[in-house]
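Before the break, one more example. Copy the sequence into your notebook; we will annotate it together after we see the structure.
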Amino acid sequence: MCRTGISRALVGVLAGVVLLSGCAEEKKPSAASRLPKSTCFGAFTPSDLAPLLGNADEVKVDSPADLKLTANRRGATCNVYVDGKSGVLATAERRPLGQGFFWPLDDKSPEPIPGVENGKVWDTGAAAGISCKGVTDSFELELWLSGSVQGKKAGESRPVLTELMRKYVDYAKQQTLCGA
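Here is what the structure looks like once it is written out:
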């Protein structure tokens, strides 16, 4: 009789553990599904950023609405937080022409981004340095993007970051009137 009581208690405990572990393993929704139609200055869509964000209970975007940098508004930063941690970080800085771009990236094994002026990509980020020479205004534009594809091995994020940087460069040039 004593063994029957223990067996029933054990079955009850195990059933509770199974139920609780089932709850703990519920899949979180896609973090990208919680983003507005455009984010990070309007440069990216949720589907653009989805590979870098994974799944999340909470997503918060800290970003200005646009990327219209001027001599007075020299920089902008966008941070997409996923469950309280930075998931994607995009920055832009407008600088006087002629300063050049010097990035200490040797330890990251960067590769050039074809078709992007001074473009570099590594496992967790990308950068570009663009010279904007216009009729009335000339300046340099430095862009940074960081994030990594969830659950991927080193190097597997590079194609995603390369395409995002290409899109970011095109958008930044348009917004800052680069070369106009």
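Strands lie at 59-62, 75-82, 85-96, 111-112, 120-122, 125-133, 138-146. The radius of gyration is 23 Å. Try to locate both features in your own notes.
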